[in-house]
Design brief:
11 strands, two-stranded antiparallel ribbon
Length: 461
């Protein structure tokens, strides 16, 4: 057993019993701007690192940043009276969106809401976590202990502290992908803070091991590979050629890391969406150039691949990804273990399939941005006393209106597991569609948001 602290159930009880006054935290607005049809305000909050420990949230604090967006169609006086919508970004480890202007779902939401775009703890401007900052915590064990405070239960506690500090009534949350996982934790531990919850591509399994998640994921990704190579049959040969080349020839990315077959397979992340899947073909057609030493991978191709396979911008994704499925027992590199049940994904397969966003232990050997964090990642993978992230009994009695988009062919959040969860949450309404993939809100966010909000509001009547 790895000696890292248990959080979750105790934290949920403390969060539930705390008064609004007790949840308020130091807060400042450091800048306001008006541009391109919107007004923004930059909010900084000092929240407890550990909302649930013996100090009762009165110990060490960290910074959590959130940017407010309001349409200039509302006067400042009218905007102050609008209800809040909290957007929970996908990830884990992804900072909140930076909007150059309101568009898609944000344009639709800004008609009726003040939008609060959260940089979840450890991301963006929220006390960021990376290979440079983590060593400030001390040893690998101390770094891993610190990261146990960066799961959905703590994100929900941050949100409730922020809501109390802003003096906001119960608000609407909109969760995309991992943001939907956080929304289910919110419904479990602090439903009194919610007016309604909207979820897109993000209904998590409420129980079971991470292994079953990855078995479903690999099956979905294999089917998506087949679909893609049906559209672009020439790309089957291109992927095989690149894999063979990488086995025989050393190629290096611009950050100095070697491009191996397994790292190249990560370009399958393109397969997770409708808005970007065809860009995979454009990447592959850039692969080779003739050189005096024979065909080599082009600088343009290598630079594009670097942007896809490096976790320099979001190291928390690699560190914490499997923990989002951990509620009892160690994950023990679940995706890597399950991959062995699907030999077509092995990097030494004759015609290897592309993978995607799964996390493997070799990430921390091959990615220069992750290499210093190998021991921390190992400790988190070995941790076997993770607390529950959801309360099934409370969800079965839920009274908050919830509407969720489930994408039939989503390769990252499995349809069957999503529907299993939906059936376990009282009053949760599902809109299942095969029109979109995991990136649906990038495809037609305005329509998706409007439909989900309408579903949730109809349940209130």
């Amino acid at each position: 057993m790895v000696d890292l602290p248990l959080t979750g159930l105790t934290g949920a009880a403390l969060l539930e019993s705390a008064s609004s006054a007790e949840r308020r935290v130091p807060h400042s607005v450091r800048a306001r701007h008006t541009y391109r049809g919107m007004r923004t305000a930059e909010h900084y909050f000092q929240v407890p690192l550990d909302h649930f420990g013996d100090a009762g949230g009165r110990g060490e604090t960290i910074t959590v940043f959130a940017r407010e967006y309001v349409s200039t169609e509302h006067s400042e006086e009218a905007a102050a009276g609008l209800p809040w919508l909290l957007y929970l970004q996908g990830g884990p480890g992804g900072r909140g969106n930076r909007f150059p202007s309101l568009g898609g779902w944000s344009k639709a939401a800004a008609r009726d809401f003040r939008i609060l775009m959260l940089d979840q703890r450890g991301t963006g401007l929220s006390s960021p976590v990376d290979r440079n900052t983590l060593p400030l915590r001390g040893t690998a064990t101390e770094q891993a202990r610190y990261l146990t405070h960066f799961r959905a239960d703590s994100i929900v506690a941050d949100a409730e502290a922020i809501r109390a500090t802003l003096g906001a009534a119960p608000w609407t949350v909109y969760g995309q992908s991992y943001g939907g996982f956080c929304a289910l934790s919110y419904l479990s531990f602090a439903p009194e803070g919610l007016r309604e919850a909207l979820v897109t591509g993000g209904l998590p399994p409420l129980g079971g091991s991470a292994d079953r998640v990855y078995r479903a994921t690999f099956r979905r990704v294999a089917a998506r590979n087949a679909e893609y190579f049906g559209w672009y049959p020439e790309d089957r040969a291109a992927v095989t050629r690149i894999a063979r080349h990488l086995r025989d020839t050393e190629e290096y990315l611009p950050d100095g890391g070697r491009l191996t077959v397994e790292r190249f397979q990560m370009v399958g992340s393109f397969l997770g969406g409708n808005t970007r899947v065809d860009a995979l073909h454009h990447l592959l057609e850039d692969a080779f150039v003739a050189t005096p030493d024979g065909d080599r991978l082009s600088d343009g191709f290598l630079e594009q691949v670097r942007g896809l396979v490096s976790r320099a911008a979001n190291p928390l994704y690699a560190l914490m990804h499997e923990s989002i499925y951990a509620q009892a027992g160690a994950t023990d590199w679940a995706a890597w273990r399950v991959l062995n049940e699907f030999p077509e994904f092995r990097p030494d397969a004759r015609e290897p399939l592309l993978t995607g966003e799964m996390v493997y232990p070799w990430y921390f050997e091959q990615d220069p941005a992750l290499r210093p964090l190998q021991d921390v990642a190992r400790l988190l993978a070995e941790k076997d006393d993770w607390a529950p992230l959801y309360d099934p009994e409370r969800l079965a009695l839920n009274t908050v209106p919830v509407a969720a988009a489930v994408y039939t062919d989503d390769i990252y959040v499995d349809r069957e597991l999503s529907l299993e969860t939906a059936a376990a949450v009282r009053g949760l309404q599902v809109w299942e569609t095969d029109e979109f993939h995991h990136d649906g809100i990038a495809d037609d966010g305005e329509a998706i948001f409007g439909r989900l909000l309408g579903m949730a509001r109809s349940a209130r009547r």
